[in-house]
Amino acid sequence: MRSLASALLLGCTLLLSLNGTAQPSASLTLLWETDALLTTIESAIYDPESGFIYTTNIEGHFMDKDGVGSISKVSMAGEIVERDWVAGLNAPTGTAIHNGRLYVTDIDAIVVVDIAAGEVEARHAIDGAVALNDIAVDAEGVIYASDTGGNAIYRLRAGQVDAMATDIDTPNGLLPQGDDLLITRWTPQTVDRLSLETQELSPIATGIAGPDGLEAVGDGTYLASGFNGLVYHVHADSTKRLLLDTTAEGARAADIDYVPGKRLLLVPTMQHNTLRAYRLAR
To answer: Distance between CA 258 and CA 177 in Å, rounded?
Structure first.
């Protein structure tokens, strides 16, 4: 793991509003960064049961069924425990965990990995899917997968897949919240709330550049990543503040994960090929 003394400057000591006004309510401090071995890392997720972080590594082109994609196993100290923990995937992106299973989107399929065994248990092909991206699970164990390329959201229940919505403009990050599904949308550059009952969309925040991952902080606010290397703090009143900007060094911020009990934000840097961990202070 590389020394990060100089990189601590990336941990913002102030929240910055979009017009540059200082907001002294929260900050991010960089704790560690893995070695640059996680090729085209797209997402990361912490599993409290195993105590490890799992990352998806596209490795090839995000639309190629080339079998070179992988999942890595990383310690909470930032050490890569097993680089090719699961291999032979195509272009794995989003991750979700439920009942000892890791769910992964892989172009046009949802892959299910038995975490204890470290093996692929099942693969659910989705007819019509173009470019699956994020994946999330609700309190009932229902799995949702966004199809950014196909403007759709799919749902996996009891081993069966159905199209939950087919007219959502470029959905990306997903976050189930009670009777709603929160969505980041790439082209509109928004965070929206989708009613699971009525399918009505309502805006939460706008002007999110390259919206990707979305995580709940646990206090009614959210963290949303912008692909070019941005992390926003989104409030219930629709205001947002810029917490992190790594665009100058070319480090992306893809599908993030937040661990509330540890106040830990995990940021995949995509083509930078590393996973970074930040402490969120409020």
So the answer is: 15
Query: What's the rounded Cα separation, in Å, for the pair 108 and 18?
Result: 36
**Beta-bridge partner residues of 223:** 215, 233
Q: Which amino acid is at 56?
A: T
Nearest CA to 57 out of 67, 72, 46 is that of 72
Closest to 241 (Cα-Cα) out of 205, 200, 271, 272: 205
- Per-residue tens of pLDDT for the chain, all 282 residues: 544 433 433 443 333 333 333 334 789 999 999 999 999 999 999 999 999 999 999 998 989 999 999 999 999 999 999 999 999 999 999 999 999 999 999 999 999 999 999 999 999 999 999 999 999 999 999 999 999 999 999 999 999 999 999 999 999 999 999 999 999 999 999 999 999 999 999 999 999 999 999 999 999 999 999 999 999 999 989 999 999 999 999 999 999 999 999 999 999 999 999 999 999 998
This prediction has a pTM of 0.91
Q: Rounded CA gap, 253 and 28, in Å?
A: 14
Question: Are 59 and 31 within 8 A, CB to CB?
Answer: no
Rounded to an integer, what distance in angstroms lies between the CA atom of residue 228 and that of residue 240?
A: 17
Q: Is the dihedral of CA 205, 206, 207, 208 positive or negative?
A: positive
Paired strand residues for 111:
104, 123
Q: Tell me the three state secondary structure of residue 7.
A: helix
